[in-house]
Design a protein that fits this description.
The structure holds 2 protein chains of 2 kinds.
Chain A lengths: L15 H13 L5 E4 L6 H13 L7 E5 L6 H13 L9 E6 L8 H11 L4 E7 L7 H5 L2 E4 L5 H15 L2 E2 L1 H11 L3 H14 L2 E2 L1 H7 L5 H12 L3 H14 L4 H11 L7 H19 L4 H12 L2
Parallel strand pairs in A: 1-4, 1-5, 2-3, 3-4, 6-7
Helix pairs in contact in A: 1-2, 3-4, 6-7, 6-8, 7-8, 7-9, 8-9, 10-11, 10-12, 10-14, 11-14, 12-13, 13-14
Chain B lengths: L3 H4 L12 H12 L1 H4 L3 E5 L5 H12 L2 E5 L7 H13 L8 E5 L13 H11 L4 E5 L7 H6 L1 E5 L4 H15 L2 E2 L1 H10 L4 H12 L4 E2 L1 H4 L7 H14 L3 H7 L7 H15 L3 H23 L5 H14 L15 H27 L3 H15 L3 H11 L3 H8 L3 H9 L19 H8 L3
Parallel strand pairs in B: 1-4, 1-5, 2-3, 3-4, 6-7
Helix pairs in contact in B: 5-6, 8-9, 8-10, 9-10, 12-14, 13-16, 14-15, 14-16, 15-16, 17-18, 17-20, 20-21
Classes of the chains: A alpha/beta, B alpha/beta.
Chain lengths: 308, 439
């Protein structure tokens, strides 16, 4: 996986507008403070690393520091650790250093104001790259000091193209269905897609649908739908043995299966209100399981309820 | 090699863009400082030029600057050491030192213990001009506000932002389409620094800036994005599309639910509202469960209910243009926060004068104080004895602020001193020790 983490901005998948802009910062040598917002696995960390690598070359680690704000999120970290790194002079002939603050939205409410002035004070020696899931969790004064880029989830086409490229490089055969299955299991998360490809390729020479689902412990979407349809037609025993097969036969965890059922809801031949009812039911089931209820009994009860 | 916000930071007050009147006030304050000797409180939204103006002022007058901001630790000792010493020193060779306390509304709880009252002390006895800078005037303690001359910086209008951007591009030798500048100014409504940052993001390294270039950035035009999504949700034909689009909305589900709550009654009616609110309520239940279990995968059901459910609740097609508002609940929260703040500061004063904890003052003393204050004469005595501000009086008595400030400013001498004995400050030693043991 790390091997195929893109090293350059050009290789980053599905965020062309953003990477073009970042590229031009690197070319002018001037990177402003940046705020990357977006879901997991869409390239925020990769872009931060790539900017550093292209800016500083081989010894990029010397002038690049990475902090995960969800591990260290108090005001003291901002005042001590971040500030100390920010004010020390850059190494070598670099003009400034880069601090990458991952999950910056988990910085506490009093740590964020402390960060904002640090960002400005040390602009001569240091630039910040902040990442977060939702920019609304970052206080306005920080947003005002950053250029904000909103990363969109990567669409399946871009994702499959990247997977195809890696497969070719590694001399791995991937079928068309295999690629689609990889897109299904990864839900727009490139990191997960590449990991899954690697796992599948380790097991079989040719990566097809079957091996992808097997190595990722995912049910084929069709199987999930068959189970739900059987249940809603009142064939409870059939639905129950499908469930048993998926949980015990294929070793799929209750949590993963629930996620798949939730995703299948909109594919079923039901009107919109029934689809929503179904999603709510599965949510109820998921909640009970997450508070300690038994996953098999809860899933059975859910299936039995579908016959209503 | 630098950021444009730094590169083009105004060097003189006359270069500061927007807020002409505030800049003038600042100038006058500085001009008259040796007579009035009051600190200034400069406040306004982020990015409108407060810090720039203050530094430019110092540069114009050849004043040295000592600055402390929230990135420094600001316990009482630290504030005293840096700001206090500078403020009280007479200055060598007659030169003035401008003491700047940036982000003065962010003196923080435990980490900055005691910092806030030290600021008040220093502000009162400063021998050097001192400026406090803040975003939220109402978060500042009444004592600080009373000690300062207040100078407000308003948002920089779109009309004033555009010329600034134009000048920068001319300086940088970049051609531009004027709509591109309008877009940037629009997206950063009120925030000049944000606009300059965005401009640099899209323009640097180019020879010409077009409208298309501008569309890459834009995490800041939050309302427009969310309004577009609300239209898809309430008026669109495709539930799956709404469920897909919500993944790219830059709002977490616990914020989004308030936007939907605000918008739905403006579009739905009758039975649609019944079903719609059923689903919003279900969504809210999942948000609560997410917090309770710390299992964030439950967020997806909140999304299903607030997007899928609300969409499916619609019975007839909707069109037209809707003015979606900013969630009122957030506005209300701001207000109750203010009210809580006032009650807390009044409780602190009651507590200090009668040796009770703040909580005891709130729970035990407030009911009586509020009752006593129904009488205007008593209210005046209490306000005077406790040094309550007009805002605090208004909060405790329910009178409007004008009445309250009249009451606070009126002379209290007319009341017989004896009536009051024993209540506020005049207890003898024995009383104090008995009361103290309650604490």
């Amino acid at each position: 996986m790390e091997k195929y983490r893109p090293q350059t901005l050009e290789e980053v998948v599905g965020q062309e507008e953003i990477t073009d802009r970042l590229q031009s910062y690197v070319e002018t040598g001037n990177v402003p403070n940046l705020l990357f917002a977006g879901p997991a696995g869409v390239g925020k960390t990769t872009c931060a690393h790539a900017v550093a690598r292209e800016l500083y070359g081989e010894r990029w680690r010397d002038n690049f520091t990475e902090l995960n704000a969800s591990d260290e999120r108090g005001i003291d970290v901002v005042r001590d650790k971040i500030k100390n790194f920010a004010r020390a002079a850059p190494v070598g002939d670099a003009d400034y250093k880069l601090i990458f603050l991952d999950e910056a939205d988990s910085l506490t409410r009093d740590a964020q104001p402390a960060l904002r002035r640090t960002m400005e004070m040390y602009t001569n020696t240091c630039r910040f790259i902040l990442s977060c899931n939702y920019s609304s969790n970052i206080i306005d004064p920080i947003q005002s000091r950053c250029t904000v880029f909103r990363f969109r989830s990567v669409d399946d086409e871009d994702l499959m193209r990247r997977l195809r490229y890696i497969a070719d490089e590694e001399d791995v055969t991937v079928t068309g269905d295999g690629l689609k299955a990889l897109a299904y299991v990864s839900q727009g998360d490139v990191r997960r897609a590449v990991n899954s490809l690697q796992a599948a390729a380790a097991l079989e020479d040719a990566v097809d649908e079957e091996v992808v689902y097997a190595t990722t412990s995912t049910a084929r979407p069709e199987e999930v739908e068959e189970m739900l349809e059987a249940a809603s037609e009142g064939k409870f025993k059939e639905a129950r043995s499908k469930l048993k097969e998926l949980l015990e036969g294929k070793g799929i965890s209750g949590g993963d299966l629930i996620d798949q059922i939730h995703r299948s809801a909109t594919d079923l031949d039901l009107d919109e209100s029934s689809q929503v009812e179904l999603m709510d039911e599965i949510g109820e089931t998921d909640y009970r399981i997450s508070t300690g209820a038994d996953e098999r009994i809860q899933l059975e009860a859910f299936l039995a309820g579908l016959a209503r | 090699m630098t950021e444009w916000t730094e590169k083009y930071r105004p060097e003189s007050l006359s270069d500061v863009r927007g807020n002409n009147k505030s800049v003038e006030e600042l100038e006058e304050w500085a001009e008259g400082w040796s007579e009035h000797r009051e600190p200034a409180l400069v406040y306004g939204a982020p990015g409108v030029g407060k810090t720039s103006a203050v530094h430019a002022l110092a540069a114009d007058r050849d004043w040295r600057v000592v600055e402390q901001n929230a990135s420094d630790s600001r316990t009482a000792d630290a504030v005293e050491k840096v700001a206090g010493e500078a403020a009280r020193s007479q200055g060598l060779g007659g030169g003035r030192t401008l003491v700047v306390l940036d982000e003065a509304d962010n003196l923080h709880g435990n980490a900055d213990r005691g910092g806030s009252s030290t600021v008040t002390e220093i502000a009162k006895e400063a021998e050097q001009p001192m400026v406090l800078i803040a975003n939220e005037e109402r978060e500042m303690s009444g004592a600080v506000k009373r000690a300062c001359q207040k100078i407000e910086f308003a948002d920089v209008t779109k009309r004033s932002i555009v010329p600034v951007l134009r000048d920068l591009l001319q300086e940088e030798g970049v051609e531009y389409e004027s709509e591109a500048l309008d877009e940037i100014a629009e997206a950063n409504s009120g925030d000049l620094r944000g606009a300059v940052n965005d401009l640099q993001a899209v323009a640097e390294g180019r020879s010409k800036l077009t409208v298309e270039d501008v569309e890459v950035t834009g995490g800041r035009d939050r309302e427009e994005e969310i309004w577009g999504f609300l239209d898809t949700l309430f008026k669109g034909d495709d539930m799956e599309k709404a469920l897909r689009e919500v993944m790219d909305v830059d709002e977490s589900p616990d914020d989004l639910v308030h936007w939907i709550d605000e918008g739905m009654p403006k579009v739905y009616s009758g039975a649609e509202l019944v079903d719609g609110y059923h689903w919003l309520s279900r969504a809210d239940v999942y948000l609560g469960r997410t917090i309770a279990t710390q299992n964030y995968s439950l967020w997806r059901y909140a999304n299903s209910c607030m997007v899928g459910g609300v969409h499916s609740a619609r019975q007839e097609s909707k069109g037209g243009w809707t003015r979606y508002g900013f969630p009122t609940t957030w506005r209300k929260l701001g207000q109750t926060k203010k009210s809580r703040g006032l009650r807390d500061s009044a409780a602190r004063k009651v507590g200090e004068s009668s040796l009770m904890s703040m909580a005891a003052a709130r729970d035990l003393a407030f009911p009586y104080i509020e009752l006593l204050m129904e009488d205007e004469t008593q209210a005046r005595r209490i306000a005077d004895g406790l040094d309550l501000t007009a805002e605090e009086v208004a909060e405790l008595t329910g009178m409007d602020e004008d009445e309250a400030s009249e009451l606070v400013e009126e002379d209290v001498q007319e009341v017989d001193e004896d009536e009051w004995e024993g209540f506020v400050d005049d207890r003898d030693e024995d009383d104090q020790s008995t009361l103290g043991s309650f604490d």
